[in-house]
Each structure stands twice: as C-alpha cells, then as structure tokens.
Amino acid sequence: MTEDSQSLKEKLESSKKYFQNADFKGADLAGAELKGALLGGADLRGANMKKIFLGDAELAKANLAEANLEEANLNSADLNKANLKGANMRALYARSADLRGANLSNADLTKSNLRQCSLFKAWMKNSDLSGANLQNVKGAQSQLQDSKFCGAKMEGADLSGARMEGANFEGAGLQVANLSRGVLKNSNLKGADLKGANLRYAIGLTKEQIESALIDKNTLLPQYLKVEWKSETEFECHVSKEKRIY
After folding, report:
1. pTM of the model
2. Mean pLDDT, to the nearest integer, of 2-27?
3. For the chain, how far is it from start to end, CA to CA, in angstroms?
4. In the beta sheet, which residues pair with residue 226?
5. Arithmetic mean of pLDDT, 19-27
6. Which of 133, 30, 40, 50 has the alpha carbon at shortest distance from 83?
7. How many Å apart are CA 93 and CA 151, to the nearest integer?
8. What distance in Å separates the CA atoms of residue 238 and residue 241, rounded to the nearest whole number?
9. Residue 232 backbone phi and psi in degrees, to 5
C-alpha cells in the first residue's frame, strides 16, 4: 500500500464517516474499517475495497461499478439502488444487506454470502453466483437472466416473478424455494434440488427440465405438467392436454 492510500485510510477511519456523495473513484480503501459509514450516493467506481469492513453502512445509490469488493464485509449494509455492475465480489459477506433495486449485473459473486438479503427487483443479469449462499433471499421480480447459480445454496429463496431465462441452476439447492410465476425458459435445472419448491405458475418450464431436476411429492408444478410416481424417488413427467407454456 502506498503512503497516500495509507493516509487516506487513516483519515477516513478517524473521521465521523460522513461521506455522502463523496468522490472516491479509483481509491485504495482495502482493509479499511468503516462500520456504519454514510456513503450514500458516493462515487466508488473502480475503487479497491478488498476486505473492507462496511457493516451497517449506508450506501444507497452509491456507484461501485467495477469496484474490487473481494472478501469485503457488507453485513446489514444499505445498498438500495446501488450500482455494482461488473464488480468483483468474490467471497463477499453481505448477509441481510438491502440490495433492493441494485444493479449486480456482470458481477463476480462466486462463493459470496447473500443470505437473507433483500433483492426485490434487483438486476443480476449475466453474473456468476456459483457456490454462493442465497438462502432465504427476498428476490421477487428480480432479473437473473443468463446468470450462474451452480451449486448455490438457495433454500427458501423467494424468486417469485423473477426473470431467469437462460440461468444455470445446475446442482443448486432450491428446496422450498418460491419460483411461482418465475420465467424459466431455457434455464438449466440439471441436478437442482426442487424438493418442496413452488413452481405452480412458472413460465416456460418443460418436462425435460423437471426430469433433469430433483423433486418430491411436495413440489408444486404448473397444471400442464403431470408427475407419475414410480417409487419414492423415481417418476415420469408428462405434458397434459391443457399444456400452457406462456
């Protein structure tokens, strides 16, 4: 770390942490301790924020496009409508953060922890969330097209009404998740655990997708998909005459 970046970190950490609309574009803030900092509307584009601590911080409408947030701590932070497009968020810890309306498209979120986050109407197109923890997230009406969720933990996630065309859920744990009214056209559900999940009004869902996934008798499917159970674990899926793939 350079002397300038060290002095900037020390200045910020010793301040009252009031940084609304501040310009930190490209700044080196790696490892800074900024719990509860007020950074609403701040410009943090391209900033190095690796391992930064921003628990309970206020970052609503902040611009963090292409910032490095690898291993950062944003626990319970307010990121409402923040721009995180293209950001590196590998191994990010952001449990219970408010990401409603945030833009996380083209971002690297592999092995991140977003458990219990609010993701209502968030944009997460073409992002990588492989191995991430998304248990019990509130992601209704979010945009998840072409994103990767391979092996992600998504038990109890609310993705009702979400756009998930082309998303890859291979091996993801979606037990008791709510996917009702979600768009799943061309999504990869191979090995995805959908036991107890609600897909009742899912759009674009095919029998081939269901046959590639893991379901049980508590999985709710669209009315046009009928399951005939051969054993406790083996089944055949048929398309009824009332087939309706919107």
Report:
1. 0.92
2. 81
3. 55
4. 238
5. 95
6. 40
7. 18
8. 10
9. -65, -25
